Amino acid sequence: MAINQARLWSRLHELSQFGKQASGGVTRFSFTKEERQAKDLVMTYMKEAGMTVREDAAGNVIGRKDGSDNTAPAVLIGSHIDSVPEGGIFDGPLGVLAGIEVVQAMSEAAVETVHPVEVIAFIDEEGSRFGFGMIGSRALAGTLLPEHLQQTDQNGITIAAAMQESDLHPDEINKAARYSETVKAYVELHIEQGKVLERAGQPAGIVTGIAGPLWTRWTIEGEAGHAGATPMNQRKDSLMMALQIIQFIEEETKKYTNAVATIGQISVKPGGVNVIPGETTFTLDLRDIEERDRDQIEEAITSYAQSLCADREMNIKIEELQRVAPAPCSKEIRAVMEEACLTMSLEPVFLPSGAGHDGMQFNDFCPIGMVFVRSKNGISHNPSEWSSEEDCGVGASILYETVLRLTT
């Protein structure tokens, strides 16, 4: 194993002290004192690994190891160090610290690469503070717009104002953007946040693609009425209608291998115990790594719902909240990762990512690849989030072998 597993493990726990909560979890939002402390420590690690270090206009921390040909496009290794409230210590930081470990191990072994390697700690992937995630990766990809910086946190502070408080200049955000010809590939190590690898008995796996979320809000308008005085065959019960649609959503989604559907919120009006619900609203989070499959599911459930509501003389309104394109991982990078696994006598396991990651922002920018590390019980965004030291070491080793092949 080329990487220093013990060093990686030690740094994970050292970094977790910034924003540490009594529960053992971490709360580390972007543009806060806790994040600043974490960024400073990450910069120290990067310097120890022999990288030149800078912070770009968005607040991303970037460490660079030159190659023998510095005109060649760089291979980027990235993830984030911000967290959700009471989050775990692995989600995000493992990818950043593993990237630093890859570069440090190369330096210690006197490995010379042709292509430069850059390790990036992206600002605000989670979106926990402002409800608008992947700020840093959007900025680097050139898709972060000035109007995005007007998103506010619960105290009414905009992203732009928070940046200014951190000695950044929001009017210069375009300076963080990179030209695609300067980047050869983007790779990331992350915990799985699911149980696929655990059930397969494998320490790590190769991601086939990142599912794109489609968020919609559905409102069914029926007719409120007396619960006791309205016969069943005369009702326009919006909740019963919504439940039929939700059942169809589940049945339709199950027809597709990688699709998932979640009804995260549901509410009824007027909300009385003895009143037939006149209006029901629910949200749908629909995801798949294949945009065509996701669109087919969307079309099927929309057609079914509209037809059903028309038959019952009820109104339906569907509001789109967010539509993000899925991001398939590069077949070429997946092949490199498979070769890396075989070199390490590991059985290659392929799996999709249902959760979003910074790499999604580079889908039209450069080839992307991801390695997942096994998660205990599939728990994430929780103080109980856990991956073993050995599994983290295996994942980092796959990352090392992959970057070695991409840069030499």
From TrEMBL:
Cofactor: Mn(2+); Zn(2+)
Highest taxon of source: Bacteria
Signal peptide: none
One Pfam family from the record: M20_dimer
Subunit organization: Homodimer.
Family of the protein in this entry: Belongs to the peptidase M20 family.
Name listed for the protein in its UniProt record: Zn-dependent hydrolase
Species of origin: Domibacillus aminovorans
